[in-house]
Amino acid sequence: MSIATWALLGFAAWTILLLLFTVGVYRWTRILSGRTPIREFVADGDGSDWYKRAMRAHTNCVENLPVFGAIVFAIHASATTGMTVDVVSLGVLIARIAQSLTHVCFEQTNTLTSIRFAFFFAQIIGFFVLIWIVVSHSLAG
Asked: Can you name a GO cellular component term (predicted)?
């Protein structure tokens, strides 16, 4: 399996783990303890600031996972390989995890929001670099 595919798999696993260990724990502890009925949970509804940040962090993962998936599919469909593809793919995964952790673990000050945005922007740059590599490889071949 290629590094890009491993990075995509890691991105998917991170999305699921983030759901289970943030939003899931928050909801299920309240449901199972009888503090909140199951019907009370709506997307981005009531909850602590931490819960709302966890919801947004998970939503960010869900929004970007298909984009990364499409890019990795194009990498494989075009038989594009190389150290740059590997490094950038891993960079996207690392930036995604760092963005999520910054979002969930810290109250959002201007400085932390700027740091979180920098991790997001690194992912976007990585997406465009990978697209450029795939298109260049396809046009050259």
From this structure: membrane
Contact 81, 91 (CB under 8 A): no
Residue 1 in tokens: 């399996």
Rounded to an integer, what distance in angstroms lies between the CA atom of residue 9 and that of residue 92? 12
> Considering the entire predicted model, what is its pTM?
0.91
Positive or negative: CA dihedral 39, 42, 25, 64: positive
All structural domains of the chain, each given as residue ranges with its CATH number in brackets, are 3-140 (1.20.120)
Give dist(CA 33, CA 39) in Å, integer.
14
C-alpha torsion sign, points 105, 108, 113, 115: negative
**DSSP state for residue 141 in the 8-state scheme:** -
30-56 confidence digits (pLDDT tens): 888 988 888 776 665 677 889 889 999
Question: What are the phi and psi torsion angles at 48 (to 5°)?
Answer: -70, 165
